[in-house]
Specification:
Strand order of the largest sheet: 33-34-35-36-40-39-38-37
Largest sheet: 8 strands, mixed
Strand content: 25-35%
Radius of gyration: 51 Å
Shape: elongated
Helix content: 25-40%
Structural class: alpha+beta
Length: about 1350
């Protein structure tokens, strides 16, 4: 789909005193190039000098300077040069003369002409291999000589058509008699063509041609066979061995060119109809396709063929009448297009040569070689740059005299076909531009200009010639429309001293005229960089900018000021970029240049954006790119500054809209404005239309902002976009326009699809999150979990005034979609359809059965007490299941033998009894109890009116058991709080229920409220914490004193067992009157002061000496021993902790030094935790792999592992954890001992045991000092050695270690080992757990300063 546009022209002209060619001989020139010095050497035909043109591939594209000619001095003055070649090995020009002389010529002209060889028979052709290592010479007698750069012969052969190695065998395939001739019938098979009288064409120059394959392994020679007097092509190996000779081809021309890729040899043939065509041969000599040159033998004489270096363009040098031209042909989708026709300097072309390194640079010689034009081409897609949604987005393909037009908005016609074929023009098309209203500005090869209108109508398009003729020395290239009245073209002068300029033609179109008048012309000179040559001229209809780029990278905008066109520099690109476009950015609409170089570098102004871009296109809201990674990327245009235009980072999400995979080698042809179509062309030429998610989402968002909900919905439906985007894009706007949404969608099926797709998630934060991560976070519009319900309610509200029958399915869908499902509301909607017709009711019922569990619907209908609905649900769920249409596996088939007797039994019951049975059946126990209350009330009313009733019986036998069974005591208490007798029964039932649940305190309270004090006392007595209520109630019921004492002893025993010594002493002293037992209880609890008070209060001073004082001394002995042991243990564990940490760091140092693999260290592999893997930190057993965690340990193994972990066995993985935690607990224990120490010291002092009090205080103080000193460096996180392995498995640690030692690349690290990787609870439990912060020693007082 690309056209070749002339991007630059360089002219090199020099004067020479070489003798002119003879009049009868055409002014031809022989060319050669030095790829290192960029010099071009030209030898005019029948001349004795070499013309030198410097810098044919000048980077600046400026006019090149020229060196002096080099004279040739052959031994035979009458001889003429046959071919020349620049030899990089000898740094000289190899010249082959017709006399057979081979000479080396110094390019500088310093060294004289040197003869290095001679072929006696003379030379008629010479060609060197692409690598310059071998040269082929053909003598006048047909001898073929293969020589090295030192002119040593390595192979000899003779060209002869009869000496082919491969003899072709005909098997009868493809005979005319056996072929199908269509409408011509069988008679066509009998017709014979005229016999070709001559096997040579009239224009044959009798010369021999040599062409090499691109890899230098084969060469071909086109020659005239002396026997058959016809042209033939023989293929030879690099060593000169004959491989094949082509099959006989009549009227084969003398030109030949081997495609550098090596698959085809091109030649020219005249058909019996005298039409010219290019034919192709394979290496084995067989024909392989052809294409027509669209000219007859009388119209053109083919002079030369040549492929460019990358085999994409075939140049055909021909003579058309009095002028010579070069046609450039390209192939796409197996069709050859004529892309350019170059006439050179006034139609005078002496020869041409492709640049060996720049594929699209052609060197054209004129005036016998004294004038050299260097033409650079670029492939461009000629399409509209309009942003109008009315544009058909035409893509124009140039093909000779015709333009192939395809409007991609409405059709995708694969090339070489097209929607409209515009033409023919008077001359082949050179350049074309699509302007406003899709008018075409067409520049032809002869310099004339045409304007084409109505291009999309194959019958009504109009071609009008612009009445303008350029001056003789001006070459016009690249044409654009700046507006419908202005045409701009690049004008290059054949005078090398004049810079390029832009010509402006003001035109006026009159519809009835066949031509377009030029009302004024102007010239824009002094364009920045014009002295280096202008490379690109383009106009962007989207931004209304006219952009021109020079060959040195200066990009300028052309604008009109005071009726004058002026240039203004926009930016300077780091390198010249053949493909440029412009956009307007920001509120001030700043012009920004987007440019792509031939090295795949994309620039935005002068900033490099990417180095792997193969094509780009400016769309409505994006810059679309294709990359060398075979992806399409999308740069959003909604930015405030040019610096924000950048390729978004490709996310890991599957829904990343900024990237899309495309086929390898894809290039962008066009993206339709206001649409989602992106047209790509594959390397083989076929087209593919895709709908990238970025463009789809952009159109959907644009439609939503315009409140075009229907278009947005249809796009979501067509392109499988989550429907939640319709809401989440702007929830407030959607909710405010819900009625408009419903009216636009209209179709109930579409509304059903939308409602069923709703979800509580926000797709604008997940799958369709904005590409620009810097966008401000919007506050959630819906409360968590309320989105679906609110939308369903709003949809139903919007449907209220509309047709109830038409939208019944939508209402049902909204009920079924709510969380939880509002099936009762759905059944009410179905019930409402009864007022319409039974048929509609049944249809609605069938629909809701599709959406919900039929069992639930059956229960809902039953709960509505509507037996007709119940029967319908049962019947239709049976039909749906039998037909296999149910979408829920839970739907069951209701058996009529099951539900009909049940319903019949219900119908026979009274109303409240019926409702009770239904609610009880459905598990609605609260509602069922209320109906049972109504049954009791009805029975009471019946007893009043008729004198008969069994209300009390029903209450006692049904209500109370039902309340107890289902725990509905609160309802019972509320119902009968004013009915004392029935309230009492409810309270007793509740108390019994609580007692059965071991809730003795509340059970006792309920029994007490029911006035059942004995059972209340029994309840209180069962809970030792209620000892006060039990003893108080015992006295309230006037219990016998002996039983009170017995109760007191029983409660005191329970309290003592629970270490409630103070409460036990109170019970024993106050209720059992046992002072001794009470004091002993206080001594057990170390309540010394209370024990002494009780003894004195009850006049038992003797107990102070006999019980309390011995108890104080005994406690003193125990506490001193405990404090000493605690301090000693603390010091031992602290010392062990230092050893553990030291060993760990020593072990880790060896691992880091790579002395051994820690994964092979299986120390205690099975000792600490069964099946746990080794850690790279200590080498000890640590945890299991993830597969084990997923299934989990058995309960027994988990208990065993936890027990071993808590034991903290020496040398185990968890030893450091055990030691640190134990030290922390010891500090907490010391803090907890302070009140006890203070109480004991006080008691010792009261009993005058000062020595013991002082010793206890000192021992505790010393222990605290030791512990404070040892705590330094224990609990700080930086001092912890074994921090665990973050829950990683053995496999992950092995990979991590191999990465560390260099055995694996870092990319092999699992994702779970990333710093932000999260751990499961099971993984977290594997690692050691330490206190979050160091312990704090208590400052509470524990002694006396006097001691």
């Amino acid at each position: 789909m690309r056209s070749l546009v002339v991007a630059g022209v360089t002219v090199s002209s020099l004067s020479t005193s070489a003798p002119p060619a003879s009049v009868s001989e055409p002014a031809r020139a022989i060319l050669a190039i030095d790829p290192d010095t960029l010099r071009v050497y030209a030898v005019p035909a029948a001349s004795s000098c070499v013309l030198v043109h410097d810098s044919a591939r000048a980077p600046s594209m400026a006019a090149s300077s020229s060196a002096s000619p080099i004279l040739l001095t052959p031994e035979d003055p009458a001889t003429t040069p046959v071919a020349i070649h620049y030899s990089p090995d000898s740094l000289a020009i190899v010249v082959a003369f017709s006399s057979g002389e081979i000479a080396l010529v110094d390019p500088t002209g310093v060294t004289p002409h040197t003869v290095v060889g001679d072929i006696d028979d003379g030379i008629i052709a010479m060609a060197w291999s692409p690598d310059g290592e071998l040269g082929v010479f053909v003598s006048t007698t047909g001898g073929v000589f293969v020589m090295t750069p030192q002119f040593d012969i390595v192979g000899e052969a003779v060209v002869d058509a009869s000496s082919s190695v491969n003899n072709f065998v005909s098997v009868g395939w493809g005979k005319k008699e056996t072929q199908f001739h269509g409408s011509l019938g069988k008679e066509a098979a009998k017709q014979t063509l005229g016999v070709i009288s001559d096997s040579l064409v009239n224009s044959d120059d009798s010369a021999t041609r040599i062409t090499w394959r691109g890899d230098g392994k084969y060469f071909a020679v086109c020659f005239i066979d002396n026997t058959s007097k016809r042209r033939a092509v023989s293929v030879f190996t690099r060593e000169g061995s004959l491989t094949s000779t082509t099959e006989p081809v009549p009227l084969l021309h003398h030109v030949i060119a081997w495609r550098p890729q090596g698959n085809l040899i091109a030649a020219v043939q005249t058909l019996p109809s005298r039409q010219l065509q290019v034919v192709f041969f394979e290496t084995n000599g067989l024909r392989h396709g052809e294409f027509s040159l669209r000219l007859s033998e009388s119209e053109a004489n083919i002079l030369e063929l040549a492929w460019n270096s990358d085999s994409t363009v075939l140049a055909v040098f021909m003579e058309k009448g009095a002028k010579k031209c070069i046609q450039l042909w390209t192939m796409g989708n197996y069709h050859y297009y004529l892309k350019q026709e170059l006439y050179g300097y006034n139609g005078d072309i002496s020869g041409f040569l492709w640049d060996p390194e720049e594929p699209l640079r052609l060197l054209v010689a004129a005036k016998g070689g004294s004038l050299l034009q260097t033409c650079s081409f670029i492939p461009v897609v000629q399409t509209s740059s309009s942003a109008s949604s009315e544009s058909s987005q035409p893509v124009i393909v140039t093909d000779g005299l015709y333009l192939l037009v395809t409007p991609f908005r409405t059709s995708n016609v694969p090339p070489p076909m097209c929607e409209t074929k515009v033409g023919p023009f008077s001359s082949p098309v050179a350049s074309v531009f699509v302007g406003e209203n899709e008018a075409l500005a067409v520049l032809l090869a002869d310099g004339s200009i045409n304007v084409v209108y109505n291009i999309n109508d194959s019958k009504a398009f109009r071609i009008k010639r612009v009445e303008y003729t350029p001056s003789e020395n001006i070459w016009i290239r690249q044409i654009v429309f700046s507006n419908p009245s202005n045409l701009l073209v690049i004008a290059s002068s054949l005078d090398a001293s004049l810079p390029d300029a832009v010509l402006v033609l003001e035109i006026k179109t009159v519809s009835e005229n066949e031509s377009v008048a030029v009302t004024a012309t102007s010239r824009i000179d002094e364009i920045p960089g014009a002295e280096a040559g202008l490379m690109r001229l383009t106009a962007d209809l989207r931004s209304a900018n006219v952009i021109v780029e020079s060959s040195n990278g200066l990009v300028s905008e052309l604008f009109v000021s005071d009726d004058m066109w002026l240039p203004e520099i926009i930016t300077e690109l780091p390198v010249p970029c053949p493909w440029i476009s412009s956009i307007n950015v920001g509120s001030d609409l700043k012009t920004v240049i987007v440019a792509l170089s031939t090295r795949n570098r994309l620039y935005i102004n002068s900033r490099l954006v990417s180095s792997e871009v193969t094509s780009f296109f400016i769309h409505d809201q994006h810059i679309i790119l294709t990359t060398m990674k075979h992806t399409a990327r999308f740069i959003p245009l909604d930015v405030a500054f040019e610096e924000d235009l950048d390729i978004p980072e490709a996310g890991a999400s599957l829904h990343d809209e900024s990237v899309r995979r495309v086929e390898r080698g894809s290039r962008i042809v066009a993206a339709v404005p206001g649409d989602m179509k992106l047209v790509l062309q594959m390397p083989r030429g076929n087209l593919e239309t895709v709908y990238p998610r970025a463009l789809v989402l952009a159109i959907i968002r644009s439609s939503l902002e315009k409140l075009d909900f229907r278009n947005a919905f249809l796009l979501c439906r067509k392109h499988r976009i989550n429907m939640n985007l319709l809401v989440d894009h702007s929830p407030k706007q959607f909710m405010e326009n819900i009625e408009l949404f419903v009216s636009q969608i209209e179709d109930p099926d579409f509304l059903n699809l939308f409602v069923s797709s709703l979800g509580e998630f926000d797709v604008t934060k997940t799958m369709y999150a904005p590409v620009r991560t810097g966008a401000s976070e919007k506050a959630p519009y819906f409360e968590f979990g309320a989105k679906v319900n609110k939308i369903c309610l709003a949809i139903r509200s919007a449907l209220e005034p509309l047709d109830k029958v038409k939208y019944v399915t939508t209402r049902l869908t909204s009920f079924a979609k709510m969380v939880p499902q509002d099936l009762e509301g759905a059944m009410r909607a179905v019930k409402d359809m009864k007022s319409v017709s039974l048929e509609e009711t049944e249809s609605a019922m069938k629909y809701i059965i599709f959406l919900a569990n039929s069992n639930l619907l059956y229960d809902v209908a039953l709960g509505m007490y509507d037996f007709q609905l119940v029967v319908m649900v049962a019947q239709f769920s049976h039909k749906v299941r039998s037909l296999g249409f149910s979408i829920l596996s839970e739907n069951s088939c209701q058996d009529p033998r099951e539900y009909l007797p049940f319903l019949s039994a219900l119908k026979a019951l009274p109303k409240n009894r019926q409702y009770f049975r239904i609610d009880d059946h459905l598990g609605r126990h609260s509602s069922a109890l209320h109906h049972l209350f109504e049954v009791v009330a009805e029975s009471e009313s019946s007893a009043v009116t008729s004198g008969s009733g069994d209300a009390e019986s029903i209450f006692s036998s049904e209500v109370i058991p039902y309340i107890s069974k289902h725990g509905l005591f609160k309802l019972g208490l509320e119902k009968y709080e004013d009915n004392r007798p029935r309230l009492q029964q409810v309270l007793v039932a509740y108390a019994e229920f609580l007692f059965s649940k071991a809730n003795f305190a509340e059970a006792g309270l309920m029994f007490y409220m029911a006035n059942d004090k004995q059972r209340a006392l029994q309840s209180y007595q069962s809970d030792f914490r209620q000892w006060k209520c039990a003893l108080s109630l015992a006295q309230e019921v006037k219990m016998d004193n002996s039983k009170v004492v017995e109760l007191a002893y029983e409660l005191a025993e329970q309290l003592t067992e629970k270490h409630e010594h103070l409460a036990a002493a109170t019970v024993l002293v106050d209720y059992a009157r046992d002072v001794l037992a009470g004091i002993r209880a206080l001594i057990k609890g170390s309540f010394w002061e209370e024990a002494i008070r009780i003894a004195h209060a009850n006049n038992r001073d003797d107990l102070v000496d006999s019980e309390i004082t011995p108890g104080i001394l005994a406690e003193y002995e125990n506490m001193t021993d405990d404090l000493k042991e605690m301090a000693t243990t603390f010091q031992k564990q602290r010392s062990r902790l230092d050893i553990v940490r030291k060993e760990f760091f020593a072990h880790q140092a060896k691992v880091d030094a790579g002395e051994y693999d820690p994964l092979l260290d299986s120390v205690d592999m099975m000792s600490d935790t069964t099946s746990m893997a080794s850690s790279h930190k200590t080498g000890f057993s640590a945890r299991t792999g993830k597969s084990t965690v997923s299934t989990g340990y058995t309960a027994k193994s988990r208990r065993r592992a936890e027990k071993k972990r808590a034991a903290g066995r020496e040398g185990g993985f968890y030893e450091e954890e055990f030691l640190v935690n134990n030290l922390f607990k010891s500090v907490e224990k010391s803090n907890n001992l302070r009140p006890s120490v203070h109480s004991l010291v006080t008691a010792l002092m009261q009993r005058m045991y000062l020595k013991e009090a002082r010793a206890l205080q000192r021992i505790y103080s010393d222990a605290i000092a030791i512990m404070q000193e040892c705590c330094a460096g224990v609990f700080e996180p930086e001092n912890i050695a074994n921090k665990g392995s973050a829950g990683k498995t053995v496999e992950e640690e092995k990979i991590a270690y191999m990465v560390k030692i260099g055995s694996l690349p870092p990319s092999m690290l699992p994702a779970s080992m990333a710093p932000d990787g999260t751990l499961t609870e099971a993984e977290k439990k594997r690692d050691p757990k330490y206190p979050e912060k160091p312990p704090v020693f208590s400052s509470q007082r524990f002694g006396f300063d006097v001691l």
